Amino acid sequence: MIKKLLHKAFSIVMMLLVLFSTVSFTIEKHFCGDVLIDVSYFFEGDTCAMDVEETIKKRSCCKDEVDVVKGQDELQLGAFKDFDLQPEFVTAFVYTYINLFKGLPKQVIPHKDYSPPNLVADIQVLDQVFII
Question: Is 0.70 surpassed by the pTM of this model?
Fold first, then answer.
């Protein structure tokens, strides 16, 4: 039972490892001056509440920062394309699976038809010898 539990836990951990190592995402930060206004992970961040006229008159003090967290993209999806079936492997594979389903030989039980002798009297009770 503990073996099954450990197997399932290990499988889940490996699945999460592959999932999180291949996920890429961006973090967008919007600054007005030196003040952080908005941080966004999935959508575009909110902008400053500056008027358009005020922005045109003087240079914009707002800036956007985009941090890209890139995941792994070097997975080997076609690993079985390079797999070459050699005669030794095929022979071992066929031999293993042919012998896998063979039945076990019948066991010979030499005392199957033996019947124990009839008890005439209980010797321990007659001699009054008891194991304590």
Answer: no
